[in-house]
């Protein structure tokens, strides 16, 4: 008999039923050619759908060419980009999973080297690989730090163009078959750099107090919601705290989440950091497993909308408790899924939520359920001898 698991209880959001609460977090692969998905993305994302995730997220997909972090980022700035993703959404659906796309603009953190090439701004070594930097943009003409590219300060027309391009990207994402769209407003990228007083020193209506600094994101979300089908969920990923003591706080996030709720956002995906450097996953060890879960809990309790927790969720039991204790509605895993793409299926086994191996694709489950019985018998025989 299977035991009741909160993690493996479906979640209904608008017209969408998500089969379980485990989410594959967005993870850049830096493997696209001019933003186009290829066989790498098909296999990379496809194996997570085979692996039993409730939701499979694409990596950050740039809504403008200049909004890519690196030359290898995925894009969604043209219909050809959407077309290249449509086979992937179809496969994810055929596995009983739900597909999600993260819509993104890197802002002043664009034109970077791939992590394994240095993770800094594109420089001479990039030039030797044929990868030139491009002009980057931000709320204010201030680089991320010393040695980083100097962005130009965006005009109101530039902001309006970005808002329009997010909406166009959302429309294409719907056509490509995605079930969920997420606006990326975390990790110091464009929207996050508008939110934070560390990087936004504008004196017009897009800067100043929290409400001015939130305006670019709120306009973006409003434009996206207007074109994203009513029945499909919309998520926003935030850095609940942006990594600077003078920066964006959890209290700011809660107030922002209330505004996002009124605009029709369904889930706040709570990450952190990145305003002055890399986001947490690319840095040294963060303090402890589940270190960002309290952010998801605070937003859920204080802003009254659903949340997704992420960051160093390492075991099935840990994920189960996050949902059971009502700290978050969804639990995302990143690096654990790179290590084991079948993490959700193995979590269901560990929690005894799938004793008959029914969650597994039948091509695998039929064999593995029998293998399990053989192993059980062998273990019994060795105990008896
Ligand atoms: C290879 C890799 C690429 C990532 N790319 C993105 C991304 O495109 N968008 C994003 O919001 N976060 C990105 N992240 C952060 C993850 O989504 C996640 O928040 C982080 O890795 C913490 O979760 P984990 O401890 O389970 O890995 C990336 C992380 C990794 C490891």
Record keyword descriptors for this entry.
385 residues; alpha/beta; TIM Barrel; 8-stranded parallel barrel; 12 helices; 13 strands; globular; binds flavin mononucleotide
Q: Can you describe this structure?
A:
With 385 residues, this protein is of the alpha/beta class. Helix content is 38%, strand content 15%. The protein contains 12 helices and 13 strands. The strands form 3 sheets. The chain has an 8-stranded parallel barrel with strand order 3-4-6-9-10-11-12-13, surrounded by 7 helices. Helix 4 (156-175) runs parallel beside helix 6, helix 6 packs parallel to helix 7 and helix 7 crosses helix 8 (293-303). The longest helix has 23 residues, at 362-384. Flavin mononucleotide binds at residues 25-28, 59-60, 102, 184, 186-187, 237, 271, 281, 310-313, 333-336.
Number of helices: 12
- Give, in order, the helices and strands: EEEHEEHEHEEHEHHEHEHEHEHHH
- How much of the sequence is in beta strands? 5-15%
Look at the structure and give the CATH class of the largest domain: Alpha Beta
Rounded average pLDDT: 96
Oligomer: single chain
Q: In total, how many beta strands? A: 13
Provide the CATH architecture of the largest domain. Alpha-Beta Barrel
- Rg: 21 Å
Query: Runs with pLDDT <50, length 5+?
Result: none
Distinct small molecules = flavin mononucleotide
Strands in their spatial order, largest beta sheet: 3-4-6-9-10-11-12-13
| Basic shape | globular
CATH homologous superfamily name of the largest domain?
Aldolase class I
Broad structural category: alpha/beta
Main sheet properties: 8 strands, parallel, barrel
**C-alpha termini separation:** 29 Å
* Helical content (DSSP H or I, runs of 4+): 25-40%
